TrEMBL record:
Domain Aminotransferase class V: 27-402
Name listed for the protein in its UniProt record: Aminotransferase class V-fold PLP-dependent enzyme
Pfam families (UniProt xref): Aminotran_5 (PF00266)
UniProt keyword list: Aminotransferase, Pyridoxal phosphate, Transferase
Cited Gene3D superfamilies: Aspartate Aminotransferase, domain 1, Type I PLP-dependent aspartate aminotransferase-like (Major domain)
InterPro entries assigned to the protein according to its UniProt record, in alphabetical order: Aminotrans_V_dom, PyrdxlP-dep_Trfase, PyrdxlP-dep_Trfase_major, PyrdxlP-dep_Trfase_small
Domain of life of the organism encoding this protein: Bacteria
Keyword Glycosyltransferase: no
GO molecular function: transaminase activity
Organism (species): Marinomonas hwangdonensis
Length: 411
């Protein structure tokens, strides 16, 4: 039988739930950034007090600082099922895609083609589209305007002999439908096309097995997955070799520095391992011990997803049947992440969000940097959508609170 998430245990790992100024406030803006877990906060605090100096130098405190950073790379790699040297920790995913696009711009030649979607967050569209100025051809894998979904048949027709790169999202931050990443990457590989997958909206719901997905490059933002404000970029070895070192030439021996020319925030890198401390604790509390890192990662992912699904079905059903609400994305909870975008009738998403905030619901409204998607769906990006997003630590009572608040605000 599947393990059931112990919510009291989960919530005891998040100081925000003990914070008096947040009591009674139901948090539905997780897609913007999740609460940080205790272990991350402890590691940050400890780093700043004990090891806030140049890492990897001779002094034991300096050595300890470096060792903590290495540990974060190793532990992230083990959860993502890749090698530690394939994990790059940059300032954000937007910064990471910018570096990536510069790198691809140096190896692709005039006439080469890149396929982008109009479903992605702008962080994984604009930097690629900008390469048009260098003579690269940008093709668009377009969403179905009625649903916001991407269809595989539309993609197949876009591949040509000149296609070098396919850039898409694991899960849109507005539509929330989970795209079949493994299948798409396989199609791309068969056509000799490299893949960049934006997993930022997915990762808070469970760190994926990047190896199994088959992406050449996979991105996520740790601040939306209980960690510090960093972007994780997995670049598989063969892809890294093709692109080459983008950082200082003398750092060539350090692969994990190749795509982080900004230089890392040492304390945040060291504290990143706190996310995995938390996942380990989740695992050990709910399951028998295992020596397989992948089994552990998979169990934790399943545990979190299952907990979200029941609540998600309830919220979606409410929104879908409400005469004054339009649900964006599929009405089947199993097909999507726990991010629910809504367009209300008779008031703007901003007006509705304000009424919810007044009732203790933390949420936001707008285009969420998915302007091209909204335009394709005929939605005015100036008003956009109301977005309600939650994760595994959300409890049924908060969904009740949200639904009651929505009912009042729509009456
Ligand atoms: C789906 C998606 N991709 C990319 C980004 C950009 O991430 P970052 O804030 O780390 O640059 C975001 C941020 O909201 C996002 O939601």
């Amino acid at each position: 039988m599947a393990a059931k998430l112990d919510l009291a245990f989960v919530r005891s790992h998040f100081p925000a739930f003990k914070e008096p100024s947040l009591f009674g406030q139901a948090f539905f803006d997780n897609a913007g950034g999740s609460y940080a877990c205790q272990s991350v906060i402890d590691h940050l605090d400890q780093y700043y007090r004990e090891t806030k100096l140049q890492p990897y130098h001779l002094h034991p405190a300096s050595q300890k600082a470096g060792a903590q950073m290495d540990l974060s790379h190793e532990r992230l790699a083990s959860y993502l099922n890749v090698d530690a040297s394939e994990v790059h920790l940059g300032p954000s995913s937007s910064q990471n895609t910018y570096v990536l696009a510069q790198a691809f711009g140096k190896v692709l030649v005039v006439g080469d083609e890149i396929i982008v979607t109009n479903q992605d967050h702008e962080a994984n569209i604009g930097v690629w589209r900008a390469l048009e100025k260098k003579g690269l051809v940008i093709k668009e894998w377009q969403v179905d305007p009625a649903t916001g979904s991407l269809h595989l048949d539309d993609l197949k027709g876009l591949f040509s002999k000149r296609t070098k790169l396919l850039v898409f999202t694991h899960c849109s931050n507005v539509v929330a439908e989970i795209n079949p990443v493994a299948e798409i990457c396989q199609l791309a590989r068969a056509a000799n096309v490299a893949t960049v997958v934006d997993g930022v909206s997915y990762a808070g719901h469970g760190l994926p097995d990047v190896n199994a997905l088959g992406a050449d490059i996979y991105l996520l933002s740790l601040y939306k997955a209980y960690g510090p404000h960093l972007g994780v970029m997995v670049i598989r070895h063969a892809m890294a070799e093709t692109l080459g070192n983008q950082s200082h030439y003398f750092n060539n021996a350090y692969r994990h520095k190749w795509f982080v020319p900004a230089g890392p925030d040492h304390a945040q890198v060291a504290a990143s391992r706190g996310v995995l401390d938390y996942f380990d604790a989740l695992h050990d509390h709910h399951f028998a011990p295992t020596t397989s890192a992948q089994e552990k990662s998979q169990r934790v992912r399943r545990l979190m997803l299952d907990a979200e699904q029941a609540l998600l079905s309830r919220l979606i059903e409410f929104v879908d049947q409400h005469p004054k609400l339009r649900l964006i994305g599929p009405n089947d909870a199993t097909k999507r992440a726990a991010t629910v975008s809504i367009i209300p009738q008779g008031q703007t998403p901003q007006e509705l969000a304000k009424k919810l905030v007044e009732q203790g619901i933390i949420c936001g409204a707008g285009h969420f940097y998915a302007v091209r998607l909204l335009e394709a769906m005929g939605i005015d990006p100036n008003t956009g959508v109301l977005r309600l997003s939650f994760v595994h630590y959300t409890q049924a009572e908060e969904i009740d609170q949200l639904i009651a608040a929505l009912e009042k605000a729509l009456a």
